[in-house]
Amino acid sequence: MNGTENISTSLRPFIPLVDFLGELLGHDTEVVLQDVKDFSHSVVAIANGHVSGRKVGSPATDLVLRIWQNREYEHRNYLVRYAGYTHEGRPIVSSTFFLRNTEDQVIGFLCINFDNSIFKETSKALRTASDYLDSISSSGSPFPTHRIMRDQSDPDTQTVDTPDEHGNAIIQNDASVQQAVTDGTHETLSVNAEDLTNQHIQSFVAEHRVQPERMNKSERLKLITDLDDSGIFLIKGAIDTVAGALGISAPTVYRYLHLIRKEKRENKEQPVE
């Protein structure tokens, strides 16, 4: 599925690639083309969108916003095998390639998201069966006599963001998806812009244990600083969503944001002694 009427001219040649990869990689692999022209409706082509529930017109992911806001694309060309999550919280394995024009400017992102749940369950079932048969052959007992080991190839064990020789992040197998979230790269595939903003707010609430409407000025400034660092204000309507959650006016959010960005500029301009 694609929306050619809204796509940048330079990204149009990649639309057939989305369809091709979608058919090649199969029903459980979502392929997405994201444009940087409008982060509120960043998805301009998608194959197998049932994996995440997204469609053409869905917003950029939190990862894409962060990459753009912090100019991380200046230091790498892609991210592979990192922890992704659907808006329902289902884990998937994700990879993103940064698309550039002839002037080396990033014009979009090609994303591949693999739902490995079927393979994971099959792998666990086969391991259980194998351990059961091994226990019978070694002890003559119909019951397993040793603990089933955790499958180290389980894609939920994707973790740390390790750069390769070119500075591109490759997530290595280790302990758990939670470790991946703690150490670096992770992504949530939101289906609409308001959900994306609210997810960031709820993450802050969970960490600081204070409801938005009960936040004092210092806590509001901290929240808005975090949201700005994450790139959430690249999304149209995010100001109004944040204002509604905090129970304050949109002009107040703008005023906070102005103060935060002014302080950032001043700190950046200060000479290092």
From TrEMBL:
Please list the residue ranges annotated as the Transcriptional regulator DauR-like HTH domain.
197-257
User: What top-level branch of life does the organism fall under?
Assistant: Bacteria
Any Pfam family: HTH_22
Record-annotated YheO-like domain positions: 11-123
Entries under PANTHER family matching the protein: TRANSCRIPTIONAL REGULATOR DAUR (PTHR35568)
What's the name of the protein?
YheO domain-containing protein
Annotated organism of origin = Bifidobacterium asteroides
Traced from the root, the source organism's taxonomic lineage reads: Bacteria, Bacillati, Actinomycetota, Actinomycetes, Bifidobacteriales
